[in-house]
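User
Take a look at the entry that follows and flag anything odd:
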Amino acid sequence: MSDPTAATKISVIVCTRDRHETICQALESIIECDYRCFDLHVMDQSTNDLTRRAVEALAVEHAQRCRLHYHHLDKAGLSRAYNLGMQHSDGVLIAFTDDDCIVPPDWLAQIAAAFREDPEAGLLYGQVLVPASLHEQEAAGNVVPALPIRRPERLSQRDGFKVFGMGANMAIRRSLLDRVVGFDEAMGGGGPLRSSQDFDFAYRTYLSGMAILLVPEVRVDHYGVRTRAQWPATLEAYGIGDGAFYGKHIRCGDRRALWLLGKILVRSWAREVRRTARDRSWAPDIYGRNLLVGVRRGAAFDIDRKHRLYRESARAKLTVTEANTVTATRRRSKK
């Protein structure tokens, strides 16, 4: 029997930077998907040619199975890589995952099915799970960022909205780009505002009138480990990015964004009080403290108010910063 979703082409975008040791395991898991109508675009921001060589060898090896396109970016930045990947691809649907994730064989088929069942959906987030092989890492106090989704949800102007999602497992309908022109290149890893490009994109999707789906059947395993020493810097980046996200929309006169920021600040201050009382010493909440840092840094940029995107100003440029530090982990052999 023919595959009813085969006519819907999916372009998969994987952004990477200096991860030649693990990028191939991520790409091979995508190539092994049981969906037949897709291509794969690697957006490489590496500082050497090791990733290019690894990807080009993989493209030759799997040429009969999947078209694997390699693109090198001279300027780093996750949001910039996303935007260029969308420009270089032509799929009706566009799926994104990270270079430290492994997808199951039904990943693309589940994405296609979810969009087919809801024509009003513009954006989808799936689960990002911690593989069993990394449970010992968590037990040792390290952190593997994850996003469990316990039940399907639909976020829209009719159904309501919440800030939720993770760029390691998301997909969009290309027609959404007629309303939401792309990711904010001041935000995200490697950008001056560090993170939260996915939250910002989701919020602008909501404002556009298209729906956001949270689909537990769409899942990936995440092999990116933050050690105890690395985690505070990750929290700092999350706080800066979230503050810049809320601050931008507040400057556009968005009362909902002001309410969301106020609520998250109250929660942060409450955590700080609880930890200080428990430990009997001052215990600052790193994430919460950096929310206001993000608001302040974002205020240095101009704003394209029509599209709600940060723009360079005399005080702030789209300079490249270091990516969040992650210890990439290899998947254990299936043999």
